[in-house]
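Notes from hallway chat w/ T.B., transcribed later so I don't forget. T.B. wanted the structure written out for a chain they're using in a teaching module, and asked if we could keep both sequence and structure tokens in one place. Agreed to drop them here.
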Amino acid sequence: MNTIEVDEFKFLEVSTNPNILISLKGEKNFCELNLSDKSNFLKTNFGLYRYSEFEQVHGVLIDGLDTSEKNEFDGFITKEKNHAFAIKTADCIPLVMWDDKEELLCGLHCGWKGLQQGIIGKALEKNKYQNLTKSYIGPHISKNYFEVKQDLINKFLQVDCDIEPFLTRIGGKIFMDLRQFCVDELHEYGVEIFTNFSPCSYTEIDHFFSWRRDPGNPLRNLTIAWL
């Protein structure tokens, strides 16, 4: 993994085929730029012609598959070249998937609500182009810090999903392994994990924002991907 610094903005370069960058915390934070400034920055420094991000609402609408008058999407699927998309997170999982020929790219915002509603299966089952076979699971809250309650467990049971294999009980508290939940579902669809590098947003204070660690902080980690 390479760290890239441009104009005091820091990014972690995860991959160049496809391109995956993660914005890092610093004295200047890329996520604080407005949409136009982000777009101009990426055009000037990375040669991109377009940049898109969405109003994420913990749902399952995917740009490229669905429509939304309010730009409320929690994912994208595209074949466009040099068009970057961002998934914004602050503990949820940013999931990026692509095909063997790197002609198709998909990004999903995978919090527990999206996972409970089946956002991964929706993207893979409704893929009308070709199979998404590789994936990257970006920075998110790790299993030791994602405490859950029985009401969350019941939400999954309501859709006939038993998450007991992904739960750990310690001292009367229950913790869920979001990453392993995603990994198991991806493997069910034959999707390979590109790398196991997946930092914890909660513990890596110097690099990532975390809602659980800092409730109320509006800043987000951006996982930016393009073909």
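Follow-up for T.B.: DSSP finds five helices and 14 strands in the chain. Might be a good example for the class.
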